[in-house]
Amino acid sequence: MDEPLVKYEFIRMPNSTGFGDYTESGQVIPVSFEGRKGGYSHCMFLNDHPPIAGGRELWGFPKKLADPSLRPDIDMLVGTLDYGGVRVATCTMGYKHKTLDCEVARSALGAPNFLLKIIPHVDGTPRICELVEYYLEDILVKGAWAGPGALSLMPHALAPVAELPVREIVSTQHIVADLTLGLGKVIYDYLP
Question: Residue 2: what pLDDT?
Fold first, then answer.
């Protein structure tokens, strides 16, 4: 990618098939692989064990148990991430200030996503180290908006989101959509 950007996300999943109601938060870094522009999931924090286990074991998502939340508060959306009772991230965004083109939002959600799946052997040496590509599928965008935003990240030993510091807020988006997390495929094996 041309610019050193990091996306910070708060995602509410109130009706997830097989996993129920949960929230997640984390960092996604815009990247490209063999000409395909997409996002690399750097870290993710969830408040529900089943999607943590499923995401880590099947796809290789870097998921950890924490306490993220996303809620409307009068004229704004408020996202917070607490890890072990310590506030790690606070995000605010003006609620539905400017409508965005739903097709543009759908196209962005349909871009490739990349993960690094690492599984050690029983002796601690690397057994699996793969670059995985996956896509969101069956995307139905119900609404998309932009608005003013702010993000504060606090240093934490086990949730180091502040190590990729906020220098400038480039944009904020609020998207409401139905979608399916498609199965991934290995696109590069680091241990041939």
Answer: 66
Question: Which tens digits make up the pLDDT trace of 135-188?
Answer: 999 999 999 999 999 999 999 999 999 999 999 999 999 999 999 999 999 999
CB 93 within 8 A of CB 21: no
Catalytic positions are 63
Burial of 182 (0-12, 13-18, 19+ CB in 10 A): middle
Q: Give the model's confidence band at 92: pLDDT under 50 very low, under 70 low, under 90 confident, else very high.
A: very high
Cβ atoms of residues 129 and 117 within 8 Å: yes
CB neighbourhood size of 123 (10 A): 6
Q: Which residues pair with 4 in a beta bridge?
A: none
Residue 52 DSSP symbol? H
Structure tokens at 183: 């199965």
Q: Taken in order 150, 155, 160, 163, is the CA torsion positive or negative?
A: positive
DSSP notation for 63-108 = EEE-EEEEEEETTEEEEEEEETTEEEEEEEEETT-EE--HHHHHHH
> How many whole angstroms separate alpha carbon 24 and alpha carbon 152?
17
Check whether 90 has a pLDDT greater than 90: yes
| pTM of the predicted model as reported, rounded to 2 decimal places | 0.92
* Residue 17 DSSP SS3: coil
CA 23 – CA 44 distance, rounded (Å): 10
Alpha carbon distance 25, 70 (integer Å): 9
